[in-house]
What we know:
2 helices; alpha+beta; elongated
Amino acid sequence: MQPHTVPPFIRSSCALASLIVSALAMVACAGDHPAPEPGEPVQAIPAKSPPMTVPEPAATIPADVIDRLRREVAGEFGLPLESVRLVSSEAVTWADSSLGCGGSDESALQVLTPGYRVALEAQGRRLSYHGDRRGNFRLCPAGRGDPPVDTGDTPVDR
């Protein structure tokens, strides 16, 4: 059995057809904006869709999140819920995914992470919880931890 060969005129016809399709695609994508002449400044093409809106940052921590943290502390220390007091809470932006509580043995994504810092008090002991906007919190041991990133008046929101 002999190998099947494609006649040269068919190969050149396929190449020509591919070239025509590519040229038509480039013309269709160009639209009404011709290419600038060499040395001419390039102008921005106006957007055809509305600009993206950025959601307002959550400046306050939802009450159910604080209640959950208070219940966890009360359960851990075997205390009545009323004895666990909220000292402070604020919306912050952490420098990385460790939420400002990473240790030298921990790796973290180097990405600005919007979240919260909550301070609770139980039995005269102050507890600092750092969290993200998804509700993941961790107790940051006393003397360990980094301050949030200063982003001006508004935390970064993603």
